[in-house]
Amino acid sequence: MSILMPDPDQAVLARRAGIAEALRGIVPGEGVIDDPDALRPYESDGLTAYRQPPMLVVLPETVEQVSAVLRWCHAEGVKVVPRGSGTSLSGGALPLADAVLLGMGKFKRVLAIDYDDRVAVVQPGVTNLAITQTVEERGFYYAPDPSSQIACSIGGNVAENAGGVHCLKYGLTTNNVLGVELVLMDGEIVRLGGRHLDPCGLDLLGVIVGSEGLLGVVTEVTVRILPKPESARAVLVGFPDPESAGACVAQVIAEGIIPAGMEMMDRTAIHAAEAFVNVGYPLDVGALLIVEVDGPAAECDYLIEEIARIAGANGAVTSRTSTDERERMAFWAGRKAAFPAVGRISPDYYCMDGTIPRRRLPEVLRRMEQLSVDYGLGVANVFHAGDGNLHPLILYDANKPGELERAEAFGNDILRLCVEVGGVLTGEHGVGIEKRDLMPVMFSETDLQQQQRVKCAFDPKLLLNPGKVFPTLHRCAELGRMHVHAGQVPFPELPRF
């Protein structure tokens, strides 16, 4: 493992048998896993380059069990790593050798559907797609749709603030979650938000969504459901190169058109996806845009014409508009399957995640091509072009010495480039361990300390998901210290409490 994790606490490891016995008293039956072979399925998440078996796995079934497990671990100084479906692509659910992995997979019930208020209340183990499947007979759906939506859990979506192809128009998880039930590390159960539109007071719900399991364990989620639009149409537009496709994206948004989704694939990704799903993607283009509009039929017709006009002005060489729902879904089938499709053309790939201003797309794509040459590694681009959320897939072979390290260095340079042009390190995958050591590229030491103070407010003992997000984790007492120089405190005129 080239990314370092905290050294295991040998005193805790020496107590492993006793910890397992105590937790079995809280979660009986098959709720505690400690057999080395049975722990193997939990040794990694979607960032499979890094693996570490957990000390133990605990699979609670009730909120009371979650509370009791966390309360016991808090009292005994045992670390806890929350885990949903394990599809995280940033190592957010990577276990620790001296920690309990708290699996929330048994929390998979839909608790309530309220069509009048347009909300659904679900447990965190419910998959993203299952929410839509539950409400689609009444003409509703849940908008955020990650490519892993068939497997990823809503609890994990909350932890990472997951996105998807339709988040350009309808927002990410944070824009579609109205409330959560949360268990803190000391076992306290709290509720933030609810079925109402906006909570009062401080926006603690906004702090929790995207907190990557550092602040608490989500045990219930209230999400917004939307009525399906009257109609939806998609258009495939081919360009000679990614730069011209990127220029088209910027102009579409600049002219005030907000598509339901706007995705881009480069030549490598197009060929891989077409060979995998055979949906009729053009193979003689350098880049492909999939643009979807939804709403009243007349509006869709008008917007499709406007998009075609803008695409033509930016050098589009092919264009094909869906004529029915089957064809529209076929257009998306290739995009949704792009990641596994690329897995057929390379032994391994490293999926990156960074976000940039849309107008910088042509420049960034051009510079990524040069980085690919410099590192001697291929790259396939499949990403959310409409909101500038890049997902370069760096192709490498882990069996060849040094290739993983080159892929990591290549990925780090891509993320540095994102920040350089005014973007951010992550758009939807989170920081986890993958981007942890790059946080100082984007944030100052003061910024990072302020973020860690929030962590300390929720988890003073730093037992929840340690080793993630922060490159240097200060003790909470250190963050609370005041610097005194020559007997003088800063701002002596202010009252001290």
TrEMBL record:
Keywords (A to Z) from UniProt: FAD, Flavoprotein, Oxidoreductase
Documented EC number(s): 1.1.3.15
Cofactor list: FAD
GO molecular function: (S)-2-hydroxy-acid oxidase activity; FAD binding
Pfam family, one: FAD-oxidase_C
Keyword Nucleotide-binding (UniProt): no
Gene3D superfamilies, sorted: 3.30.465.10, 3.30.70.2740, Vanillyl-alcohol Oxidase, Chain A, domain 4
PROSITE patterns to which the protein is assigned, alphabetical: FAD_PCMH
Residue ranges annotated for the FAD-binding PCMH-type domain, each copy included: 50-228
Protein name: Glycolate oxidase
Organism annotation: Sphingobium fontiphilum
